[in-house]
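## Example record

The block below lists the input lines for one assembly entry, exactly as stored, with component labels intact.
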Amino acid sequence: MSASITPDIPLEIVEKLRSARRVAALTGAGVSAESGVPTFRDAQTGLWERYSPEELATPEAFRRDPKLVWEWYAWRRELVSRAEPNPGHYALAELERRVPEFTLITQNVDGLHRRAGSRNVVEYHGNIHRTRCFGEDRIVEGREDAGEVPPRCPDCGGLLRPDVVWFGEMLPPGAVERALEAAESCELFLSVGTSALVQPAASLPYVALDGGAMVVEINPERTPLSGSATYTLRGPSGEMLPALLE
Ligand code: BV8
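Predicted structure tokens for the full assembly:
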């Protein structure tokens, strides 16, 4: 039984973390994996195994079958509501307290970073716990109990949808600007738990590299970023991120 050992973190990373004024982190589904939230790359479980996220996370899928898409998000919302932040989430919240200017850019819509105490969070792809009117494109407070699936907008009667960014949809302009500014100006950029495939999020580490930042990837597996990152820490974020704090 191997005791959990503190992973070896290169001294250069530790020193950079100590000296950096501006740090940015980009997280993906992998950072919530140890909270029991399935990643997009994991085979979908149970009821949803015959669908791929790319098939359901699109406006076309919602127009074609709003009930199916709404129920997929209701299932995910219920799952993440039962999940707890893991040591990786808490370590990122602690990093924010230690670093003068820390920006957390997350592709995750599960809200676990805020539940772990992170404050300066850019919800790059929205938030599954917020609901929007599909027609008016504005936030509508909880209508879950309306009975109809999907529920309808109390003002225009249009269908409600989760306030997330689907494939083929533009990202919230404010989020794009805040993330770009953080990537351009940081001295250290952490890419954590992401397959580094979905654009424009996947370009952010390269913006940081172009700006002269050290880029550190934390992922048990290789990704398209691995060859360009300054360092790659091969392991789960729930162990690697707390090790950065030691
Ligand atoms: C846009 C919210 C402008 C919804 C998501 C070619 C054709 C068509 C389109 C495109 C194209 N090229 C680019 C595009 C645009 C497209 C895109 O990038 N497509 C990809 C598939 C090529 N992007 C868009 O459409 C974006 N909008 O570009 O607007 C535009 C407009 C019109 C037309 C063109 C362009 C919008 C993208 C946002 C989509 N919404 N989420 C929801 O959640 O339901 S994306 C969703 O998937 C996530 O948010 C995330 O971004 C992505 C999944 O990636 P990851 O988070 O990385 O998760 P994944 O499962 O893939 O990987 C997990 C990783 O964790 C693995 O590497 C694993 O090894 C690791 N891991 C596992 N365990 C651990 C771990 N790591 C650490 N610790 C562990 N314990």
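The chain has a mean pLDDT of 93. The longest helix spans residues 66-82.
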